[in-house]
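task queued by scheduler; priority normal; single chain, no ligands, no partner chains; default sampling; output format set to structure tokens
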Amino acid sequence: MSLKKGDKAPSFTLFNTEKKKVSLEDFKGKNLIIHFFPAAFTGVCTTQLCTMRDDLAYYTKLGAEVVGISVDSLFTLNKYKEEQKYNFDLLSDFNKETSQAFKSYYDTFAFDMKGVAKRAAFVIDKEGVIHYAEVLESAGDLPDFLAIKTTLEQI
């Protein structure tokens, strides 16, 4: 069953590219946008995260933090973050637990890859409640960035 508006966001603790643990609890008192993406260095994923990078000032003005989560290793994510100049944390869900908890998970993806994060976007309020949840079945689709902004404006 998918997560939806009004659900409590699943707790997580993952490593960022600086090898530090980042937990959902670290964002208590702040709004949070989580972007799940299938794989670093791919076209649609880069478009998704670059869109967030380029609009980060807007999200910050609305009191929101942004993180990106994939099943890539933190070392791969570090290189990706450097190359694309991402100005928010990328978190490694290498063990695939967070992707599964958020129901954003392909058992089998392209090229028979097992256990890959689906493209998804969640807006979570200061108390850890989901206000927006979008999990895309097609990895070629992008999240609805306008809906994300509208949701933040209404929190």
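post-processing summary
- Residues 43-54 form the longest helix (12 residues).
- The helical segments are 43-54, 56-61, 74-84, 97-101, 145-154.
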